[in-house]
Amino acid sequence: MNKFIRTVAICVMSLAFAPAVQAQTTVNVAYDADPVSLDPHEQLSGGTLQLSHMVFDPLVRWTQDLQFEPRLAESWEQIDATTTRFKLRSGVKFHSGNDMTAADVKWTFDRLKESPDFKGIFSLFTDVKIVDDLTIDLVTSEPYPLVLHTATYIFPMDSKFYTGMTADGKDKAELVKHGDSFASRNVSGTGPFIVSEREQGVKLVFDRFTGYWDTASEGNVDKIVLTPIKEDPTRVAALLAGDVDFIAPVPPTDLKRVEDNAGTNLITMPGTRIITFQMNQDRVEAFKDARVRKAIDFAVNNAGIVERIMRGFGTVGAQASPAGYLGHNPDLKPRFDVEQAKALMSEAGYADGFSITMMAPNNRYVNDDKIAQAVASMLSQINIKVDLQTVPKAQYWPKFDERAADMMMIGWHSDTEDSANFHQFLTACFDEATGNGQYNSGRYCNPEADALMNAANSETDAAKRAEMLQKLEGILYDEAAFIPLHWQNLAWGARDGVHAEKIVNALNFPYFGDLVVDK
Amino acid sequence: MFAYLVKRVFQAAAVMFVISLIGFAIQDNLGDPLRELLGQSVSEEVRQELREELGLNDSFVTQYARFLGKALQGDLGTSYFFKEPALDVILKKLPATLELVLGATLIIVGLSVPLGVYTAIRPNTILSRIVMGISIVGISIPVFLTAILMIFLFSVELRWLPSYGRGDVVHVFGNWETNFASLDGWAHILLPSLALASIMLPLFIRLIRAEMMEVLQSEYVKYARAKGLWPWRIYFVHALKNTLLPVITVGGVQIGTMVAYTILTETVFQWPGMGFMFLEAVNRVDTPLIVAYLIVVGFIFVVTNTIVDLIYGLVNPTVNLARMGA
Q1: Which DSSP category does A326 fall into?
Q2: How many domains, in total, are found in chain A?
Q3: I want to staple A469 with a disulfide (CB 3.0 to 4.6 A). Which of A53, A123, A327, B113 is the partner?
Q4: A37 touches chain B (CB under 8 A)
């Protein structure tokens, strides 16, 4: 009974004090998932990076128009072919109260080199040299054009906080992919928000860090409550009902609803994830013929898919690199002409067509299974009979690794935000030693294209590099190395007064530290 | 009685053993857990290292023997996603699910008895026809559709009730936080409970109605009427008691089934219970958690069935549990 009275008392008190609590600005955010871990090096995923931009700060970060913006690095200069010197911001404090120094950056870099997920990005980086307390040299093994791209992944961690032993005798710095670790549950960064409460899969509460260095930021949000809401209709309903202030993603079926509804706004932006089909030349003899691959490209109506299936929620593509990337070749136009496709098929001696198998996931990309069905029926127009199978993503990737079908769907986002990454994983000659072509289920292989990629990867002159990468896209287009469909758009929903349009970007890392909310 | 319980414990153990074996056997078909643990551009070499570390390269027998050995010591494995012992994760989520089932049960019991009795004794009134009509509709609409329609009506259009989650829960003890101690908690549990109840409620109304109609035709009711007993006494004291026997049997089994239906309800309402957790675990191929969930749910089924048998014995003196155990 005593307990009951106490409970009632707490309820009454919390009601009484409710107005006082609301004086601070709280933003309720609903995503489709919450981050896997508080350890920024555990998994290379959108969720981890979104969290990192709230709790940590990178050395440099991307702006909305894909330029670099100084964050913890105030300035940088290349001092020789393989060394870039970064000047760090002074007076930056971690959540623990420790000062951020060059030693923290080095410590973080060394840990990144150990991370199974991140070490690939840092493979060409050999060292961080501490010049003085606020100056570091980032050293690569060869001239490398993506130093700044990569620096967006360096979120300095509080080395003093993560050093030592936990009560049960584990190293605090330990990086564990599965199982418990100090870093997966405790966090100290320099970012605008500190994690004050976390129940995995239920909610994540952030409070503004009072000692945040970026006092110039207009951001005025005191508290963020992030709730994962997996179901699309529920997430949209929560925004429309006013239970949350900001949601992502908004599913294509509800875009209009969020836009038309009084009190909520829709923000969309072309994304950078390309959706493609690959044609397996090892499994189907006909796919070795560029004319057949081109015929397929001509037969597939990408614009129609974007309009009908994606409801306009995509950008029609003819290449892997989205606009804004160095390698984006503006001359390449989507191909669609069924007559020409038929002509190419008969020219190649396949006028009567053939049968193939096709596989696609059904819960990985937006409308992935419907897109695959549409492509299958489009191919029937040029007498290619498709036996389509769609499976959940968990089962799809093992199948993809086996190259289990003649045509397979894959979507790709470049971790480096650079064009060469698409070719390296999707269309380069398969090579087990370098890992090139790891996701090239088409087995397309063109040494000339690979040579261009390698040359571009050690070319530090941006203009020359752009030329090489655009030429590379041109080759892949001419040979129809793969079937590009579209780049998935991004969509966020926000209630009136939450000025989210200024903090979102094509990378889908909203910079919540800068979020302004009308009081 | 004791012998009966001992027998039940052995049955439960056997059921859970079989479930664990089946759960383990299908896990290879669920997909590759590494895909959810590692980023997309991680090399095959690193994948293999982790696979080796997790023991996924061992044969089925080795893996199962290892699992069984640990399970006997109460360790059902560690969830890949939550990074905690799978059993702890489930026990943390269990109160939310049980409260939801309790909420739905209260609604079902509170509505099905009066409605069932009323439609039995006044089968031709307009109200009875409306109730029966709605119950047909209710039984044929899938629960996730009911749930989404309710969210759009009560949360988005009318703005009466919150659309998702548990809201302000009050901590009771251990893992148990309750929705029943605050106004906000009640507001949050109402819609999910209604959605969950919507599947079973029509069934129970129809069941009680049919049983009641049959009982009302029986000799002893006719005799009671002839004797001049007040009708409400006949209905609620004499007839209802005999109506409830089959209802309890079916009810016990159905409440167990309701735990399974929570998967859909919880997913739609983002209710942080174990049904939602299970669906997520399947999507993430969190195999230790999936197997542990199946075992726990199997256990709940056995327990509810045992309790139903015990209650049945109390309500119906002709059932002798002591003899059943022998």
Answers
A1: T
A2: 1
A3: A327
A4: yes
Q: Which amino acid is located at A255 in the chain?
A: L
Chain A residues within 8 A of B272 when measuring between CB atoms? 199, 201-202
What is the C-alpha separation between A167 and B222, in angstroms, rounded? 76
Q: Tens digit of pLDDT for each residue in B214-233?
A: 888 888 888 888 888 888 88
Nearest CB partner across the interface for B39, out of A117, A392, A412: A117
**Domain annotation covers residue A203:** no
Three-class SS of chain B: CHHHHHHHHHHHHHHHHHHHHHHHHHHHHCCCCHHHHCCCCCCHHHHHHHHHHHCCCCCHHHHHHHHHHHHHCCCCCECCCCCCEHHHHHHHHHHHHHHHHHHHHHHHHHHHHHHHHHHHHCCCCHHHHHHHHHHHHHHHCCHHHHHHHHHHHHHHHCCCCCCCCCCCCEEEECCEEECCCCHHHHHHHHHHHHHHHHHHHHHHHHHHHHHHHHHHCCHHHHHHHHHCCCHHHHHHHHHHHHHHHHHHHHHHHHHHHHHHHHHHHHHHHCCCCHHHHHHHHHHHCCHHHHHHHHHHHHHHHHHHHHHHHHHHHHHCCCCCHHHHHC
At position A372, the amino acid (one-letter code) is A
Task: Tally the C-alpha atoms within 13 A of residue A163's C-alpha that lie toward its C-beta.
Answer: 9
Domain ranges of chain B: 86-286+303-324
Instruction: Kindly state the tokens that stand for A413.
Output: 């986002």
Count of beta carbons in the 10 Å neighbourhood of residue B48: 13
Question: A383 to chain B nearest CA, in Å?
Answer: 33
Distance CA A149, CA B215 (A): 79
Distance CA B24, CA B292 (A): 10
Q: Which residues 6+ apart lie within 8 Å of A479 measured at CB? A: A290, A293, A444, A446
Q: Indicate the CATH number for domain B86-286+303-324.
A: 1.10.3720.10
Both tokens assigned to B65: 């023997």
Rounded distance between C-alpha atoms, residue A104 and residue A101, angstroms: 6
Q: How far is B63 from chain A (nearest CA, A)?
A: 18
CA distances, A201 to each of B60, B162, B188 (Å): 31, 19, 18
Which residue of A43, A243, A394 is in closest CB contact with B163?
A: A243
Q: How many other C-beta atoms lie within 10 A of the C-beta of residue A107?
A: 20
User: Is residue A516 included in any domain, yes or no?
Assistant: no
> Does a structural domain hold residue A75?
no
Residue A517 within any structural domain of the chain: no
ipTM above 0.85, yes or no: no
How distant is the Cα of B58 from the closest Cα of chain A, in angstroms?
18
**For residue B276, which residues of chain A lie inside 8 Å, CB to CB?**
230
Bridge partners (DSSP) of residue A138 are: A84, A128
Residue A205 in contact with partner chain B when CB distance is under 8 A: no
Of A84, A49, A77, nearest in space to A154 by CA: A49
> If you measure CA to CA, which chain A residue comes closest to B32?
A394
Candidate from A377-386, A416-425, A465-474, B141-150 with smallest mean pLDDT: B141-150
Question: Three-class SS string for A279-313?
Answer: ECCCCCHHHHCHHHHHHHHHHCCHHHHHHHHCCCC
Task: Tell me the backbone φ, ψ of residue A55, rounded to 5 degrees.
Answer: -100, -25
Residue range of the domain that includes A444: 270-489
A43 vs B183: CB contact, 8 Å cut-off? no
| 3-state SS, residue A178 | coil
CB A406 within 8 A of CB A280: yes
Return the CA Rg of chain B.
24
- Interchain CB contact of A117 with B (< 8 Å): yes
The CATH number assigned to the domain holding A393 equals 3.10.105.10
pLDDT at residue A9 greater than cutoff 60: no
pLDDT tens digit sequence for A19-53: 444 468 999 999 988 888 899 998 888 889 999 99
Number of residues that make up chain B = 326
By DSSP bridging, strand A246-248 and strand A26-31 are parallel
